[in-house]
Write a structure and sequence with these properties.
Elements lengths: L1 H18 L9 H12 L11 H32 L5 H36 L1
Length: 125
């Protein structure tokens, strides 16, 4: 029972550490640029233009960021299992397999991101 509780709190801690930085409320740099443009005499419109490649690129970036976070969690999990193996070869092999698969997954994600960025760049320009 205590192992389950420790695992639960460890999971909650990791989620909080990985999610909290996304809720930082800082001033957007575009506000300062808009103010400088209006002070200079240029007309600034508040309409943001959304075109399809930009929208799809934003969705892909969010998805790739989530996959990157999953990679980090798998690497930590594999390293933790390796440390807890205590010399047991089967546990060490399982931990190394977890790390190896996480690295392969990262390479696939980075490759797909590069291909997607290239295709979207060619669609936009």
């Amino acid at each position: 029972m205590t192992k389950t509780i420790k695992t639960f709190f460890t999971l909650i801690f990791l989620v909080v550490v990985l999610i909290i930085p996304y809720f930082v409320f800082a001033q957007a740099p575009l506000d300062a640029l808009k103010k400088a443009a209006t002070d200079s005499g240029y007309e600034v419109t508040d309409k943001e233009q959304f075109d399809l490649p930009t929208y799809i690129g934003g969705i892909i970036s969010i998805f790739m960021g989530l996959l990157g976070m999953i990679f980090i969690v798998l690497m930590i999990y594999g390293g933790f299992n390796w440390m807890r193996a205590a010399g047991d070869e089967s546990k060490v092999k399982l931990a190394i397999d977890t790390i190896r698969r996480a690295v392969i997954g990262l390479l696939i994600v980075v490759g797909s991101y590069a291909i997607g960025s290239f295709i979207l760049f060619k669609l936009m320009y």
